[in-house]
Write a structure and sequence with these properties.
InterPro entries: Dup_hybrid_motif (IPR011055), PTS_EIIA_1_perm (IPR001127), PTS_EIIA_component (IPR050890). It is an enzyme of class 2 (transferase). This protein is globular. It is mainly β. The strands form 3 sheets. An 8-stranded antiparallel sheet has the order 9-5-6-7-11-3-2-13, with no helix packed on it. A 3-stranded antiparallel sheet has the order 1-14-12, with no helix packed on it. A 3-stranded antiparallel sheet has the order 4-10-8. The chain is 10% helix and 41% strand. The chain has one domain (17-166): Glucose Permease (Domain IIA) (Distorted Sandwich).
Length: 167
Amino acid sequence: MGFLSKLFGKKEEQVQELVLNSYMKGKVVDITEVPDPVFAQKMMGDGFAIIPEEGKLVSPVAGEIIQVFPTKHAFGIKSGEVEILIHVGLETVAMKGEGFDVAVSAGDRVEVGQTLLTYDLELVKEKAKDIITPCVVTNMDAVANIEVLKLNETVDFLQEVAKVKLK
């Protein structure tokens, strides 16, 4: 053991990979297929999207809720070194929370599969631009790559959908 490791102790092992589980029941699609340039051009980060079959959103990771948008349609979650954003539907901000029932608040610790939101999917179909629900890693500077495992497959809650490899 070298002098520095004796002085500072053993370096803590960092988790090098984070599994993103399915946060919805539905079809997984590539982020570039989201009909919104902010997501499709990866301006906010890389990831994937799910076209939901029912109005329920669960946490894809264990971590901390760092943001619940006032309009209830989007969530920021931090898990280890990874920060993700899940955005329910497109242009759902205009709904001002109508039809959305949020089950968590900023600062809450969440487990994989914990319900974050239940919502009226039919109302979103009627009032929003699209029901597609992107999930993006917003701090891509910490990430080496994202491997989507279930592209163009229909998934149920909590199936492994993607792996985020850290730098």
